[in-house]
Design brief:
It is found in: Cell projection, Cilium, Flagellum. This is MORN repeat-containing protein 5. Keywords: Cell projection, Cilium, Flagellum, Mitochondrion, Repeat. With 173 residues, the protein is an alpha+beta fold. Helices cover 16% and strands 35% of the residues. It is built from three helices and twelve strands, in the order αββββββαββββαββ. The strands form two sheets. A six-stranded antiparallel β-sheet has the order 1-2-3-4-5-6, with no helix packed on it. Strands 10-9-8-7-11-12 form a six-stranded antiparallel β-sheet, with helices on one face. Strand 3 and strand 4 form a beta hairpin. The radius of gyration is 20 Å and the shape is globular.
Length: 173
């Protein structure tokens, strides 16, 4: 998810400072970063039933003056998370991807290294960390299409070396 633009931040802050600038009732608010809110508003805040729609999923909740109660998160692959239900996805006991739960692997199927069937094409010698790749030589994390995300922490570097696949040409090892 892309961060909010300064214009979106200013629009939200000005709405909170002058709540009457956003009408009450049911509305759709669209932000420059692709996120939208579809639901009820009161005094410029999410209030009542509403859904925040992200490019990769949604958050449905009943809102009280901007605070969500009992949110349900639905990821792009259909996996749902709800606070009052024990989270049994990707645990120590069951490390399957959501796609393996909804479409189980058969014995003759190739191993899945990623939920989307991957692996992603990443440069040789880099680590696939799930949200992009870590290039230790450049001390940077990149998106799969090569855009710089961040400088990795020491903890991330150690975790990647210990747990992630490293690209060694056409194959992962």
């Amino acid at each position: 998810m892309a961060p909010l633009s300064q214009e979106d931040r200013d629009r939200i802050l000005s709405a909170l400072d002058a709540p009457d600038s956003i009408e009450g009732g049911s509305s759709v608010l669209k932000f420059d970063n692709g996120v939208a809110y579809d639901g009820e508003l009161s005094n410029g805040r999410f209030h009542g039933t509403g859904t925040i729609v992200f490019p990769e999923g949604t958050v449905e909740a009943v809102w009280a003056h901007g605070v969500a109660s009992d949110p349900v998160v639905t990821f792009h692959d259909g996996l749902r998370f709800h606070d009052d239900v024990s989270w049994d996805y990707c645990t120590e006991d069951d490390q399957r991807f959501q796609s393996e739960i909804t479409d189980p692997l058969l014995l003759q199927d190739p191993v899945r290294l990623r939920n989307d069937g991957g692996p992603a094409a990443i440069p040789q010698g880099t680590y696939d960390i799930g949200t992009g790749f870590l290039d230790i030589g450049k001390d940077a994390v990149f998106t799969y299409d090569g855009k710089l995300i961040e400088k990795p922490s020491e903890a991330l570097r150690q975790w990647a070396v210990a747990n992630c696949y490293v690209a060694t040409g056409a194959q992962y090892s």
